[in-house]
Specification:
102 residues; alpha+beta; three-stranded antiparallel β-sheet; 1 helix; 19% helix; elongated
Length: 102
Amino acid sequence: MSLPIYNSPSDPMLIAMETNWAAMLNPVLASPIATPIILTDISLSAGSNTINHTLGKNLTGWFLVRQRAQSQVWDKQDSNSLPQYTLILQASSAVTVDILVF
């Protein structure tokens, strides 16, 4: 996604402002974290858990935004053969979490 520029020949100052805004905002809009999804109430069991992340693209990253019990959680993405569809999380004990994926 990028900021549109409306080239108005009657207002060169507006074109200059839009061009400057686009130069500043387009890198932010292009960032993978600009369009995250929060997966809520994901129940993890102790051990390996495969979660459909629903991004429709390769997962860039994730973090827990809510954790309802004490547990260590880490990913096993280096061995994931389907990163465009799934996130593999390892949990030290059963826990319910909300996960922000991007």
